[in-house]
C-alpha cells in the first residue's frame, strides 16, 4: 500500500511537470507580448527590453521554465517584484500580487463548490438511479429516466440565471449566491452555496442516474446475484447488499474522469454567480495574458485532479477485494 | 510416418509477469510451455491433451507461429521458423492454418461468409482457376454447407455451421497442416460428432496433417493416431493411440483416463483414481517432476530430478514416458483415492 | 401398446406421493423476437435421497425447468403453467416469502461457473455463513464455525484460514467445493446442480462428482443433476430424464436408458459420443441437422425433423401429433414407434456398427 502510494505520487509529479511544460510552451506560442502591456502606450524599445529583462523574459524558454520550477521548491528573487518565498509561483502580470497567495485566497470557494456539487451528484444520481433500477420498467423508472435526459441536456449558464431569477429574486426562497467561509458561519456557507451546487450538479446528476440504473440492471443479471437469490436472500438485500458494489465500480471510474469536467463546470458556475474562486482567476488570467497566474491555476487544478484520482483508486481497493494496490 | 512436416525442439514459451515499485520489472514468468519436443508427419494426426494451464493451446499457437518462442526451435519441413520475420513466414503461412474453439468470436460478424472464406486468398494473393467465388462455393460444399449461402452473415448460422465456416476458411489455401485448438468443445454433443466426422473426412480425402488440441480424451482418441499428454508445460507421455489409451505408464495419464466419464454401465471395471486438489500454478511450477505434488508414487527423487521423456522397457517404439516410478501398462490397476473428502 | 396417454392430469389429489413431483410444467418467455416455448408439458418425479440426471443439449429446457422449481425466473417476462409439488407444498403458486424461506434452506442450487456464481466482494466464509444465519437464525460466530465445518467436509484444506479468503483466491475446483459447502450448509432436502462440472478440468470433475455422491450419502439429499454429458449421468445418477426441445424424450433408470435406449434421440446422443473403447475406424453417428428454435418449435414430435424414422409410425402421426411419454411409470419414452420396432432398429444399428 505504501509503496503503491509512493509510486502513484511520483507518477503524479511527472504528469504535473509535463502539464506545466506544455502550458509554458503554449503560452509563448500565443502572439501576444505581456511585456508590452507593462510598457504602456508610448513604449520605447529600450524600456521594453528592460521590462523583458526584469520579468526574466529575455532568457531562453527552458531556462525560464527551470527558474519557475525551482521557484516552487526554493523560492526566487524578482527584479520587478522583490523576493518571493517558496512555494513561489511568481507574481501576476496583471495585478502584481503573488500568484500563490491569490490562489490560496480563492481556493476555499472552488473547493466548497466542487465538493458540495460532488456530494449532490453522487447522492442524488445514485439514489435516483437505484430507484429506477428497483422499479425497472415501471412509472417511477420512466419518470427518473426521462427527467435525467432533460437534465443532461441543460446548460449551467441557462439554468443558473433562470433559477436565480425565480428562487432568489421572485420567490426569495434562498439568499443570493456568495461565499461565506465555513469557519465563519457554516449555515450561511451552506445556504449561500445551495443554488450554485444544484446548478453545477444538474447535468452531472442526470448522467449518474442513467449510469447507476444501467449498472444496477446489469449487475442484477449477474450469476452471483442469482446465487444470492438461490440462497433465499430477499430481493431487497440482494439489491442493496450484493448488486450495488458491482455497480459502484464503473461509476467510481467515471467519476474520477468527470472530476476534471466538474472543475471546468465550476469555472462557468463561478462566472454565472460572480463567485470569486479559482475559475474567475483563470478566466481573468486568460483575458490578461497573465502567464504566471495561468500557470499557477493550471498546475493547482491539475494537482487537485491527479490527487483525487489517487483517492479514487484507493477507494477501489476498498470496494473490490480483487483490486490489490501493489 | 513419411515426411516430417512440423518439428518442435525443446520449445519454451514464458510469459513475463510484471510488478515492482516505481519501475515495472519482470518479477516472474508463466511457464506456459517448458521444453516440448514433438513432431507431426505429413498427413498424420497428433492429439495434444491436458487440463487447463498445461500449455497445449500455447504449443498450438507456437506451432502456427502466432507466438514467438522464448527458446527452442520450430522447424517446418526442416526450415527453422522459430524467429522468422513476417516476410520470411509469408510463403509458409498458407500451409499452416488454425481452427479455433469459439465459432462465435473467431468470425467477423460484419463480413459475409464469402468474404470471410475469401479473405486468406486475398491476403496471400491466390487466384484459383475458375475464380475465387467458385472456390468459395466449392469450399462451402466440402464442409457441408449450402454453396448458395456465401452471401449470408455468420449470425444466420448455428454454432456447428459456424465452425464449418471456420474450417472452410482454414481450407481455402490448401494447407498441409491444420492446428485445431479445441475445435468441438463449444458445440453440443450431437453437433460435435458432425464436426469430428467432417475433420476426419478432410484428413482422409485431402491428406492434411492435424495437430488436434483438446481436453476431451475420448474425442482425441477417436481422431488422433498419436497422442501427447501435457501437464504444466511439459509432455509427460507420448505414443501411438493404443499405447496411451491401453498401456499408459505415467500416473497422470492413468489419472486422466480414469476420470473420463463414460456413458456405459456394463463395460469392464476401470481403475478409479481420484487426485487431490487442482493443478498448481504455472507461474511457480514444482521442482523436479511437475506432477509430484499430486502423485501417489512420488518420492524424494521426484523433487530433485526432472524425469526424462524416454522409452521405458516394455513400451512400444515411439511410446515415451517421463516418470521415475511408472505404473503398470494397464487401465485396470488398483484404485487410488487421494482426495481427503472422499476417503 | 403405444396409446397416446397424457401423464399427470393437473389438479389430481395429492396422497403421499413422491418427494418432488413436477406435473405438466410449461415455461414461456417473452423476448424481443417473440415467445420462447422453453418447456412444454414436462412431468417427472424424484424420490428422497436419489439422484435424477436431466440430460439435454443447449435450449432443451433443462436449466429453465430447474430455475422454475426455485422460482428464480424473471416474473415479468415468464409465464409458468402446471404444478411443482415439494412434498405437500405447491411451488408455482407459493408466495414470495414462502419461496425465500425455502431457497437455500430446503432446496439449494449450485451453478456451472463457480467464479461468476460467487460474489467477488465477500469472503467465502461470509457467503456460506449468511445462508445459515438467514435460515437458522444463527449468530455470526456460529455461522462462521459452521462455515469452517462445511469447508472441511467438502475437502478444503486449512478451512480455518480459507474461510476468510475471497473467491478469486481459490482455484476452480476449490471454488466449486465452496459452492457445494454453501448449498449444503442448511442440510437441504433437494440439491439442484446445474452443470456443476462443465467448467472444470477432467480430473477435478471426477473429484467433484464423487464428492457429491459422498455427501449425498451423508446428508440424504435428493439431487437433480443437470448436464449435457451422458457420461456424467452414468456414474452419478440413479434415474435419467432425457430432454429435447422442452419436452421429455425418455425417462428411466440409468441402466435402462443407457443399456436399452428407446428414443431415437437418445440413440443419436449415445452414438455421437466417442468412447475410450469404441472402434476408431468408423465415423461417429451424429444426429442430423440442428436443434430447433424454441421460438417456433416443430409441429408434432419436436424431434421429427432430425429423426431417421418419422414415417415408420404412420404417414402423418409424427408430423402432426405430439407424443407423450409412455408408459406413465418406469422406463418410458415419447415416441410413436412400437417397442418391437425400436428393438429391431436398435439391433440393426448395433450389428451395423460391429
From TrEMBL, chain A:
The chain crosses the membrane at residues 9-28, 115-137, 149-169, 189-209, 242-268, 293-319. It is a multi-pass membrane protein. Keywords: Cell membrane, Membrane, Transmembrane, Transmembrane helix, Transport. This is ABC transporter permease subunit. It comes from Microbispora catharanthi. The keyword Flavoprotein does not apply. GO terms for cellular component: plasma membrane. The lineage of its organism: Bacteria, Bacillati, Actinomycetota, Actinomycetes, Streptosporangiales. Belongs to the binding-protein-dependent transport system permease family. Pfam families: BPD_transp_1, BPD_transp_1_N.
TrEMBL record, chain B:
The keyword ATP-binding applies. Belongs to the ABC transporter superfamily. The lineage of its organism: Bacteria, Bacillati, Actinomycetota, Actinomycetes, Streptosporangiales. Residues 17-257 form the ABC transporter domain. Keywords: ATP-binding, Nucleotide-binding, Transport. It comes from the Bacteria. One of its GO terms (molecular function) is ATP hydrolysis activity. Pfam families: ABC_tran, oligo_HPY. This is Dipeptide ABC transporter ATP-binding protein. It comes from Microbispora catharanthi.
Automatic annotation (TrEMBL), chain C:
GO terms for cellular component: plasma membrane. One of its GO terms (molecular function) is ATP hydrolysis activity. PROSITE patterns: ABC_TRANSPORTER_1 (PS00211), ABC_TRANSPORTER_2 (PS50893). InterPro entries: AAA+_ATPase, ABC_Ni/Peptide_Import, ABC_transporter-like_ATP-bd, ABC_transporter-like_CS, Oligopep_ABC_C, P-loop_NTPase. Residues 22-270 form the ABC transporter domain. Transmembrane segments: none annotated. GO terms for biological process: peptide transport. This is ATP-binding cassette domain-containing protein.
Amino acid at each position: 500500500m505504501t509503496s503503491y502510494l509512493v509510486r502513484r505520487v511520483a507518477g503524479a509529479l511527472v504528469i504535473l511537470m509535463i502539464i506545466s511544460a506544455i502550458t509554458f510552451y503554449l503560452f509563448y506560442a500565443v502572439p501576444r507580448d505581456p511585456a508590452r502591456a507593462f510598457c504602456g502606450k508610448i513604449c520605447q524599445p529600450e524600456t521594453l527590453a528592460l521590462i523583458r529583462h526584469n520579468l526574466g523574459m529575455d532568457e531562453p524558454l527552458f531556462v525560464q521554465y527551470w527558474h519557475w520550477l525551482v521557484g516552487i521548491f526554493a523560492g526566487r528573487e524578482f527584479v520587478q517584484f522583490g523576493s518571493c518565498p517558496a512555494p513561489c509561483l511568481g507574481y501576476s502580470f496583471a495585478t502584481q500580487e503573488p500568484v500563490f497567495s491569490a490562489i490560496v485566497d480563492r481556493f476555499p470557494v472552488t473547493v466548497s463548490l466542487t465538493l458540495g456539487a460532488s456530494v449532490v451528484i453522487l447522492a442524488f444520481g445514485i439514489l435516483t438511479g437505484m430507484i429506477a433500477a428497483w422499479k425497472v420498467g415501471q412509472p417511477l423508472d420512466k419518470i427518473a429516466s426521462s427527467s435525467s435526459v432533460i437534465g443532461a441536456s441543460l446548460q449551467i449558464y441557462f439554468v443558473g440565471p433562470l433559477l436565480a431569477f425565480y428562487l432568489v429574486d421572485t420567490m426569495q426562497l434562498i439568499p443570493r449566491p456568495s461565499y461565506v467561509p465555513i469557519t465563519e458561519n457554516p449555515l450561511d456557507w451552506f445556504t449561500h452555496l445551495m443554488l450554485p451546487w444544484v446548478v453545477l450538479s444538474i447535468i452531472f446528476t442526470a448522467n449518474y442516474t442513467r449510469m447507476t440504473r444501467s449498472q444496477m440492471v446489469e449487475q442484477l443479471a449477474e450469476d452471483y446475484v442469482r446465487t444470492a437469490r438461490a440462497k433465499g436472500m430477499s430481493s431487497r438485500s440482494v439489491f442493496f447488499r450484493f448488486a450495488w458494489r458491482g455497480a459502484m465500480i464503473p461509476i467510481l471510474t467515471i467519476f474520477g474522469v468527470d472530476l476534471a469536467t466538474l472543475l471546468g463546470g465550476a469555472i462557468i458556475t463561478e462566472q454565472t454567480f460572480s463567485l470569486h474562486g479559482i475559475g474567475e482567476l483563470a478566466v481573468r488570467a486568460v483575458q490578461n495574458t497573465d502567464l504566471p497566474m495561468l500557470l499557477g491555476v493550471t498546475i493547482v487544478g491539475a494537482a487537485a485532479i491527479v490527487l483525487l484520482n489517487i483517492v479514487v483508486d484507493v477507494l477501489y481497493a476498498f470496494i473490490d477485494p480483487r483490486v490489490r494496490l501493489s | 510416418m513419411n515426411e516430417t512436416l512440423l518439428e518442435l525442439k525443446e520449445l519454451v514459451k514464458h510469459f513475463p509477469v510484471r510488478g515492482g515499485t516505481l519501475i515495472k520489472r519482470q518479477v516472474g514468468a508463466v511457464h506456459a510451455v517448458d521444453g516440448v519436443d514433438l513432431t507431426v508427419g505429413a498427413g498424420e494426426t497428433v492429439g495434444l491433451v491436458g487440463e487447463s494451464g498445461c500449455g497445449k493451446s500455447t504449443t498450438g499457437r507456437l506451432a502456427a507461429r502466432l507466438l514467438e518462442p522464448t527458446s527452442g526451435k520450430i522447424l517446418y519441413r526442416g526450415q527453422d521458423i522459430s524467429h522468422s520475420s513476417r516476410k520470411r513466414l509469408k510463403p509458409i503461412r498458407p500451409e499452416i492454418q488454425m481452427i479455433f474453439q469459439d465459432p462465435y468470436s473467431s468470425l467477423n460478424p460484419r463480413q459475409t461468409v464469402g468474404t470471410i472464406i475469401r479473405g486468406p486468398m486475398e491476403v496471400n494473393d491466390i487466384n484459383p482457376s475458375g475464380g475465387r467465388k467458385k472456390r468459395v462455393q466449392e469450399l462451402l460444399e466440402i464442409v457441408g454447407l449450402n454453396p448458395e449461402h456465401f452471401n449470408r452473415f455468420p449470425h444466420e448460422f448455428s454454432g456447428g455451421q459456424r465452425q464449418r465456416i471456420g474450417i472452410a476458411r482454414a481450407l481455402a489455401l490448401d494447407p498441409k497442416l491444420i492446428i485445431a485448438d479445441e475445435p468441438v468443445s463449444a458445440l453440443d454433443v450431437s453437433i460435435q460428432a458432425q464436426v469430428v466426422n467432417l475433420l476426419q473426412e478432410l484428413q482422409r480425402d485431402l491428406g492434411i496433417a492435424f495437430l488436434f488440441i483438446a481436453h476431451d480424451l475420448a474425442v482425441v482418441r477417436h481422431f488422433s493416431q498419436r497422442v501427447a499428454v501435457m501437464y504444466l508445460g511439459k509432455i509427460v507421455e507420448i505414443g501411438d493411440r493404443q499405447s496411451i489409451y491401453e498401456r499408459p505408464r505415467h500416473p497422470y495419464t492413468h489419472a486422466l483416463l480414469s476420470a473420463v466419464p463414460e456413458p456405459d454401465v456394463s463395460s469392464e471395471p476401470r481403475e478409479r483414481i481420484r487426485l487431490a486438489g487442482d493443478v498448481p500454478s504455472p507461474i511457480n511450477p514444482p521442482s523436479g517432476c511437475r506432477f509430484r505434488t499430486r502423485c501417489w508414487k512420488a518420492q524424494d527423487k521426484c523433487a530433485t530430478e526432472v524425469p526424462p521423456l524416454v522409452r521405458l522397457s516394455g513400451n512400444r517404439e515411439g511410446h515415451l514416458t517421463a516418470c521415475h516410478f511408472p505404473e503398470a501398462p494397464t487401465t485396470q490397476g488398483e484404485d487410488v483415492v487421494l482426495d481427503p473428502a472422499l476417503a | 401398446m403405444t396409446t397416446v396417454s397424457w401423464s399427470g392430469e393437473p389438479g389430481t389429489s395429492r396422497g403421499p406421493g413422491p418427494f418432488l413431483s413436477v406435473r405438466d410444467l410449461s415455461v414461456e418467455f417473452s423476448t424481443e423476437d417473440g415467445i420462447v416455448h422453453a418447456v412444454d408439458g414436462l412431468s417427472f418425479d424424484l424420490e428422497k435421497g436419489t439422484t435424477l440426471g436431466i440430460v439435454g443439449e443447449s435450449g432443451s429446457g433443462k436449466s429453465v425447468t430447474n430455475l422454475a422449481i426455485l422460482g428464480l425466473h424473471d416474473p415479468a417476462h415468464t409465464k409458468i403453467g402446471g404444478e411443482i409439488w415439494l412434498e405437500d407444498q405447491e411451488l408455482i403458486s407459493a408466495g414470495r416469502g414462502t419461496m425465500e424461506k425455502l431457497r437455500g434452506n430446503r432446496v439449494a442450487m449450485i451453478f456451472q461457473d463457480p467464479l461468476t456464481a460467487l460474489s467477488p466482494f465477500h469472503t467465502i466464509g461470509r457467503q456460506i455463513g449468511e445462508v445459515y444465519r438467514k435460515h437458522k437464525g444463527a449468530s455470526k460466530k456460529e455461522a462462521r464455525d459452521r462455515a469452517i465445518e462445511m469447508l472441511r467436509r467438502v475437502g478444503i484444506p486449512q478451512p480455518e484460514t480459507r474461510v476468510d479468503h475471497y473467491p478469486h483466491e481459490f482455484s476452480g475446483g476449490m471454488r466449486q467445493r465452496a459452492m457445494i459447502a454453501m448449498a449444503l450448509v442448511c442440510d437441504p432436502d433437494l440439491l439442484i446442480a446445474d452443470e456443476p462440472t462443465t467448467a472444470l478440468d477432467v480430473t477435478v470433475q471426477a473429484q467433484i462428482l464423487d464428492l457429491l455422491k459422498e455427501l449425498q450419502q451423508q446428508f440424504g439429499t435428493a439431487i437433480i443433476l443437470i448436464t449435457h454429458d451422458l457420461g456424467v449421468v452414468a456414474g452419478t445418477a440413479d434415474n435419467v430424464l432425457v430432454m429435447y426441445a422442452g419436452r421429455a424424450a425418455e425417462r428411466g433408470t440409468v441402466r435402462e436408458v443407457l443399456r436399452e435406449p428407446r428414443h431415437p434421440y437418445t440413440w443419436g446422443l449415445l452414438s455421437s459420443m466417442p468412447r475410450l473403447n469404441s472402434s476408431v475406424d468408423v465415423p461417429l453417428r451424429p444426429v442430423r441437422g440442428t436443434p430447433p428454435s424454441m421460438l417456433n418449435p416443430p409441429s408434432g414430435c419436436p424431434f421429427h425433423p432430425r429423426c431417421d424414422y418419422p414415417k415408420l409410425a404412420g404417414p402423418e402421426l409424427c408430423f402432426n401429433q405430439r407424443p407423450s411419454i409412455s408408459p406413465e411409470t418406469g422406463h418410458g419414452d415419447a415416441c410413436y414407434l412400437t417397442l418391437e420396432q425400436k428393438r429391431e432398429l436398435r439391433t440393426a444399428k448395433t450389428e451395423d456398427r460391429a
